[in-house]
Amino acid sequence: MFSLFLVTPLKLMLLGLIAILGFTVVRYSWVAFAGDTERGRFIRALLLTISAVVLVIISNHLLLFWAAWVSVSLSLHRLILFYPERPRAQLAAHKKFLLARLSELLLAGAFLALYREFHTSDIHALLVQVAQSDASINLSIAAVLLALVALIKCAQLPMHGWLIQVVEAPTPVSALLHAGIVNLGGILLLFFAPVLALSQVASWLLIVTAGISTVIAGLVSTTRISIKVKLAWSTSSQMGLMLVEIALGLYEMALLHLFAHSFYKSFSFLNSGNTVNHYLAAKLAGEVKPQLRNWSLALGLSIGLIALAQWQYAVMTSMAAAVLIWFALAALIVPSVSRWDIASLPRIALSLGVACALLTLYSFSKHHLAPLIGQDTPLNLYADTLVALLFFSLFALSVALQYWPHVRWVKSLFIWLNAGAYVDEWATRLTLKLWPSSSLLALQSEQIHLNAEAKL
């Protein structure tokens, strides 16, 4: 039976996530804007944005889905420009506005191709037909366009600048954006996974673009001092990682990643005011920087845990996923093996226990979350190998930046990364050409001066 709305177990999980994040952000905003005469306007715009996201999730009609998608962007635009006199907020809002209109045109094109192929606007019925179909020109066009929409929505390089500059907006806006709205690109691909699975071109487009974006954005984040800017670059990197997981067919890993990233980023932004205090407390407590031998020990322990999990449960079916989990567990374990004192053994035991719990969680999600997507895509070994190599390069370059900063090529790499890899200038110039203003032109002159100094 045709219905405008549909709630599946996957959508129910996402609605629960939206409810938790939405309540947290609204509650924080209510307290943060206490006494502000504009609190009512801000809360209304916030609730409108959250409502539009909910409508995207439950929509079961192509036109309704597209209209809700547009509504999210337009309501978010009001939040980004809550302080319209700030030049960087204007620049972020203008970039986001132009990119959003492009993504909406691409999404409309994808939906039109799907409608022409199956002659139905019911999303559930359409996806059922896709699962029983072979690749066609319309399906390939739709898959590529959906991939492009996801890349834009998830702020992948070189379309990431607005996400970095949006930190000029109030903190709750950053929390809502980074923890929720930026995830819509991944959610779109999870909803239309059967379409993406039929196009190797779309999958490779995601793997190459999002994979490179993951590495560059992850490395740039290590050069940033500002807490919010560091978190923004990290979001671009994490979104790229999620898109790569979806392109590889690791849907359960992408869904788990989506939830973990949402909770982490909402907490990080809403708690960013206390980060400096935590940093100072760690310094006063005598925080020890891990040495290379500590990393070697942590990598050895983590690979031992992965081998044990693989022996017992055979959870690792992807080399890229295994490498990613290996490095993640090593990063979790390394602080406990960096200092040797009377409390070392309890610390190591605790970190190993948490690592085992995370492996158990991954094993659970692999067997119970994957059916929610309803799609089983064969793993592309070439793509899997390429992604694994990208993860190795990210880890190796991070180590080089941390431990060998005086080596000539590392210095050059740091300067390049510190300038944001010089990939946002084109977007700034294009935005100023299409949407000029005196304050933004002054900001462009300032950026040109800063980039010239960085090159020197």
What do you see in this structure?
The structure is a single chain. With 456 residues, the protein is mostly helical. The protein has two domains: 9-276, no CATH class; 288-371, no CATH class. 77% of the residues lie in helices and 0% in strands. The chain has helices spanning 9-32, 39-58, 62-80, 87-118, 123-131, 137-153, 161-165, 171-179, 184-191, 193-197, 200-221, 227-248, 251-270, 275-284, 292-313, 319-333, 344-368, 370-373, 381-403, 408-418, 425-434, 438-455. α4 crosses α21 and α6 (137-153) runs parallel beside α11. The radius of gyration is 22 Å and the shape is globular. The protein starts with 8 loop residues before the first helix and ends with a helix. It comes from Shewanella avicenniae. It is a multi-pass membrane protein. This is Probable inorganic carbon transporter subunit DabB.
Compact overview of the structure:
This protein has 456 residues and is mainly alpha-helical. It is 77% helix and 0% strand. Helix 1 runs parallel beside helix 13 and helix 16 (319-333) packs antiparallel against helix 17 (344-368).
Which keywords apply here?
single chain; 456 residues; mainly alpha; 2 domains; 22 helices; 0% strand; disordered C terminus
Describe the protein's topology:
Elements: H1 9-32, H2 39-58, H3 62-80, H4 87-118, H5 123-131, H6 137-153, H7 161-165, H8 171-179, H9 184-191, H10 193-197, H11 200-221, H12 227-248, H13 251-270, H14 275-284, H15 292-313, H16 319-333, H17 344-368, H18 370-373, H19 381-403, H20 408-418, H21 425-434, H22 438-455
Helix pairs in contact: 1-2, 1-8, 1-13, 2-3, 3-4, 4-6, 4-21, 6-9, 6-11, 8-13, 9-12, 11-12, 11-19, 12-13, 15-16, 15-17, 16-17, 16-19
Domain NADH:quinone oxidoreductase/Mrp antiporter transmembrane: 59-276
Subcellular location: Cell membrane; Endomembrane system; Membrane
Subunit structure: Forms a complex with DabA.
